[in-house]
Specification:
Blueprint lengths: L1 H10 L6 E3 H10 L5 H10 L6 E3 H8 L3 H14 L6 E6 L3 H17 L6 H13 L3 E6 L15 E5 L2 E7 L4
Antiparallel strand pairs: 1-2, 3-5, 4-6, 5-6
Helix pairs in contact: 2-3, 6-7
C-alpha cells in the first residue's frame, strides 16, 4: 500500500483532496508509465465517474485511512510552499498559516462554481481547522475595507482574478 500512498502524495501536490486525468498524465510522464495508466486509474478509483478521483474514493478502494492520508498530504504540500498564483497584498499572518488559508481558498474555488459559495465554505473549514471565529470576503473588482482583528490572523491576497480578505476575531 505504501506505493499507492506515495503515488497520491506525488500527484496531489497542492493537497486539494482530489486528482484528475490531467494530474495523472503529468505523473505518468514524470514516471515514464504507459499511456494506459491514466485510463486504468480513472476506471479503478473514479467510483462516481465524475472525472476526478476524490481522496475518499481512493482510500475506500484501497482500504486506507482517509483522515491520515489527508493529514500527510497537507504536510507534504506545506513543504512545497505557497501555491502558484497567490499574490500577497497585506496581512500579519504567519507564512505557514497563509499557505493553509490560500490552499483552502483555492480548494473552495475548485469545489464551487459560484463565487458566492466560496466564503462560507472557507469560513466553516477555517473555523474547524484553526479554531473560531473567522471572517472571509471573496471579491472581484475594486474594494475598500477597514476591520479589526486578532493579532497575527489577517491576510489579504490575490489569486487569479479574485481577492480574498480573511481575518479572525476573538470569541469574546
Amino acid at each position: 500500500m505504501e506505493v499507492f500512498k506515495e503515488a497520491w502524495y506525488s500527484i496531489d501536490l497542492e493537497a486539494k483532496g482530489s486528482i484528475n486525468a490531467e494530474d495523472l498524465a503529468v505523473y505518468m510522464r514524470k514516471n515514464n508509465y504507459e499511456e494506459a495508466f491514466v485510463k486504468k486509474w480513472m476506471a479503478i478509483f473514479d467510483q462516481d465517474n465524475s472525472g476526478t478521483i476524490e481522496l475518499e474514493e481512493y482510500c475506500e478502494v484501497l482500504g486506507l485511512n482517509e483522515k491520515e492520508m489527508m493529514e500527510e498530504t497537507r504536510l507534504r504540500a506545506k513543504a512545497t510552499g505557497m501555491p502558484e498564483g497567490v499574490e500577497y497584498i497585506a496581512g500579519d499572518m504567519s507564512e505557514e498559516r497563509q499557505i493553509d488559508i490560500a490552499r483552502l481558498c483555492i480548494e473552495a474555488l475548485e469545489k464551487h462554481s459560484s463565487l458566492k459559495e466560496v466564503p462560507k465554505w472557507v469560513k466553516l473549514e477555517a473555523d474547524k481547522q484553526f479554531d473560531r471565529v473567522w471572517h472571509v470576503l471573496a471579491i472581484r473588482g475594486q474594494f475598500w475595507c477597514y476591520f479589526g482583528f486578532e493579532p497575527e490572523t489577517s491576510y489579504v491576497f490575490r489569486y487569479k482574478r479574485n481577492v480574498f480578505i480573511i481575518w479572525k476575531t476573538p470569541r469574546n
